[in-house]
Amino acid sequence: MKFLSSNTSLLKFLASKSHLKSFAQILESINRASTPPNVLNDHVDILVQLTAVLRNLANVSGNKQYFLSFGLVDEICLLMTKSPNEQELMYNISGLLSKLTLHSNCCEAVAKDPINFKSFVELLARFKTREELVLRVTFILGNLLAKQESARSYLFSQPNALEQILEIYQYYFEKEAAVSRDVSSETAARSQKKFEDVVIKTVRVIANASISQEIGEMIAKSEKCIELLLQVLEQKKIDSSEELVLNVMATINNLSFYSFQDSAIVKKRLSIARALLRFIEVKHREGLAEATRVFGNLTREKDVRDFLVANKVDEAMVAILDSGNRELVFASCGVLINLMADEEKRLLLSNEEGISKLIGVLQEFGRTDWQLAGMVCQTLWNFSAKITSAASCFGEEESQEIVDILTEYLDDETVTEGIEDDDVMRGYYLETWKTEFCPVALDLLRRIEDNQSHLEPILS
Question: Which of 155, 328, 421, 425 has fewest C-beta within 10 Å?
Answer without folding.
Answer: 421
